[in-house]
Amino acid sequence: MDYILAGLKEAFRLLFSFDRGTYTVIFLSLRISGIAVLLASCLGIPLGALVGLHKFPGRGVITTLLNTCFALPTVVVGLFVYLFLSHRGPLGMLGLLYTPGAMITAQTILATPIIGALSLVAVKGVDPAITKSAISLGATKVQTTLTVLREARVAILAALIAGFGRVVTEIGAAMIVGGNIKGTTRVMSTAIALETGKGRFELALALGIILLAVAFLINTGLYYLQRIRE
Amino acid sequence: MKNYTIQTHNLSKEYNGEAVLKEINLQLERGRIHAIIGPSGVGKSVLLRLLNLLEEPTSGEIHFDGKALRENNRLNLHRRMTLVFQKPALFNTSVYENVAYGLKVRKENRSSILEKVKKALEVIGLKGYEHKRARDLSGGEKQRVAIARAMVLEPEILFLDEPTSDLDPRNVAIIEELIKYINREFKTTIVIATHNMFQARRLAHEASFLFKGRIIESRNAQEIFTSPKDKRILRFIEGKMIF
Q1: Chain A contact for B100 (CB, 8 A cutoff)
Q2: Which residue of B has its CA nearest to A137?
Q3: Residues A78-109: pLDDT tens digits?
Q4: Cβ contacts of A96 within 8 Å, gap of 6 or more
Q5: B159 pLDDT above the threshold of 70
Q6: Which of A128, A170, B165, B177 has its CA 20 to 30 A from that of A1?
Q7: What Rg, from alpha-carbon coordinates, does chain B have?
Q8: Domain spans, chain A
């Protein structure tokens, strides 16, 4: 028990002394996952809106795929991104393996179906009379879609938060395609795994606290968004 | 010769093989108020949605200004007419943004939008409500905002689907005055679906009685109420029609 308390004490010291190494890992995590969610939202939100608002052949297949990919195993995504980005892979010439770019790619793949599927649900949750009103008031198809997205903004923001929560805490893909290189690709989740493996619990606990704090902030955000919605 | 803005030819609509509207032949004269009357559930709302091009008919044709739909640009047609729903589907934003919506999608300039919205809010008696959340308004106020949202567009044709069905007498009177104002001020052709024959009589120049998906009589509104040719209309007027 003593070593846990000592670890916690050291963790708080690292956090409140603004230890450079700790904060490098934290900011790198937030930057990689933030960019990944931004890219995933550029893909997922239009995809969700397209499938949710328009009827076309293959719509059911895309919906099923989105829902299936909702729970993509992170190591499988990591493996496929590795195979594509490795020197022998089709995208090997990009030299992205073991860089933040590779991690962003993997996390974008993980977050896109989550944001897409939740955006689909969000736009479907908008009263159909809103869509009809927009059309009746002279909106073009694009303007109508943007209007519906604006109506679903709280639910879409929740989708973005859920996507961020998923990628910032994942470890499988980050480890495989990032390589856990200190100062370059070492993020909170991979650092925790590494430090725990070495028996150095202080940094692992400090990062664990930050991850918990991020999760807490995400859930607090979701709670308040739901209240606004009500 | 009468100037018709909309004519329908054998317009029919089915849902899952069940006919809701059957061979509707309507002629809507420009600048007049036309009431579609009949008991609840006879297809009045469906007819308005077809005329507003929000749904496709199963068969039959709609002509605008004598031209078939396929000869017209759909977006241009949408921008010449609008529909106010029975339950006002207001956007989750301010009253100003709601009323300005149609003008913004038409890319009108900011000062013109500001002026038109301000005037419309004065006309509907909601001056100073610009920054209120539209969804926080009362039922009557919401419906007035929905009508203002349509009115600022000065549409050639305005469809109103049971616009006063859930409102108190004061709001009913306000909205009926608004309908007359829009018709008088902008020469707008108004098509109002209502089950309230008194309202139809107060507002409409022409009336069509819809029953079980068919138009059974269509003529001058006063005549249809004072001397209906069809017995079913007489029963409806006398309140004996059981639905």
Answers
A1: no
A2: B102
A3: 999 999 999 999 999 999 999 999 999 999 99
A4: A85, A102, A105
A5: yes
A6: A170
A7: 18
A8: 2-229
Report whether CATH 1.10.10.10 matches the domain A2-229: no
**Is the confidence at residue B165, as pLDDT, over 60?**
yes
pLDDT at position A139 over 90: yes
CA distance B137 to B160: 20
The reply to whether B1 touches chain A by the CB within 8 Å rule is no
A229 CB near a chain B CB, below 8 Å? no
Map out the domains of chain B as residue ranges: 4-237
End-to-end distance of chain A based on CA atoms, in angstroms?
A: 44
Fold of the B4-237 domain:
Rossmann fold (3.40.50)
A186-228 pLDDT, tens per residue?
999 999 999 899 888 887 888 888 888 877 887 787 778 767 6
Q: Chains A, B: CB contacts under 8 A, how many?
A: 52
B83 and A CB contact within 8 Å: yes
* Interchain proximity A140–B54, CB inside 8 Å: no
User: Is the pLDDT at B133 greater than 70, yes or no?
Assistant: yes
A residues 118-147 lying closer than 8 A (beta carbon) to B: 127, 129-130, 132-140, 143, 147
Provide the pLDDT for residue A223.
75
